[in-house]
Please model this.
Amino acid sequence: MAKSEMFELSKDSKGVTWDVLMYVPTVTGLGIGALMFWYDKNQGLAYLLFFLSCFFFYQGVHRVLGRMLVLPRSPVSLDVSRQRVSLALRNGEVVELIKNVRYFSDHAGKSFGLTGMDMMGSRRQYVFHKGQFADDATFGKVGSALKVFA
Model:
């Protein structure tokens, strides 16, 4: 059996702050623009801006809650071996990515993506941020352990 490494995730408060600073002005600006166009009798553009405002609001809430590990399907730990990657989710479920596991690192080195098929044949996708790990060394260690799936 191959050696595996276990990594615990934590809440990324710094990343949440940046996300809030990005999403709140965007949603507010789109909402104000929608109101302005609505009362200017340009309902078509108002509907579009309102839709975009709602979309960015939902996306921002999902991203913030995911970084804070509040969502039930948020990973709380990561177990990496050469054959598979196992994720423990907040709701107690354990997901094992066993087929087509792929590791995607970003160019800035602040996050990475992980995709693969679980035991049931469902495709799973996860994004992990540098702030969710204990320190920079742990983040680098996770990246080097996952390089076999790149």
